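Researcher: Next sequence.
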Amino acid sequence: MKRFIFSILSGLILVSAYAIDIDYSNDSKVAAELRIGMSTRPTLDVEIGASFRPFRYLGVNASLTYITPFNSRKNFIDSIPLYGDIYSSIDNYKEGGYNFIAKAGLQFTTPAVMLSKNEMGLSLRVSPGITIPIPTNKSMSISHFKRYEDELLDELDEGKHYYIFDSKEDVKNSGAKFCYWYVRSELVLEFEEQWEFTMGYTYSNFDLYGGCRNIKVNDNPLVILDKKLHHTISLGLNFKF
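Model: Next structure:
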């Protein structure tokens, strides 16, 4: 974490040192933002947001992100141990991860290094903020199967066990974390006055499966994925009004 913060600060100082003083008096204060990213969980993220920049180098932003998790099955317990004669399984493990998150934060942007006269500029933007999952707590559907007793089958199959559907229940999580922090750093390429192309990296403590991490069935937690810091690489396009 210390190295990450040091790298951001070094980048801010370096870009500012080589920046050219430009007249931003007519610069737009409102921008629409679109980002597509991949995280280490892994997930595919599509983020739509807006930013308000009352000052050239300082602003605020808010966004909504739709998340598509991959390989969700391996992050949950493979088989819930027997509870007496009852065998249980997860029906909707694909829905265990968060699908929607809201973000809000600050934006700090360095002066731009001009790549061509009054047409293209390169700057560094840092955005610390918070992430709020929607909804905070999720529900999981669990099916229960009861052991089928049949003496004839037991003799023919040499003691193999058969299970038939018994019941289904929706188990809701409780006590999930309400919000998480994040820090995003982006290289911003400005062109044609109103457009910005961004390449970013986001560092966060966001827990993709925090919405069902506290659920237990027969005293067994459903989520087996360890909590780890969340890393996301993204590409974005912004339009300034």
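Model: The first strand starts at residue 30 and ends at 39. The CA atoms of residues 149 and 162 lie 8 Å apart.
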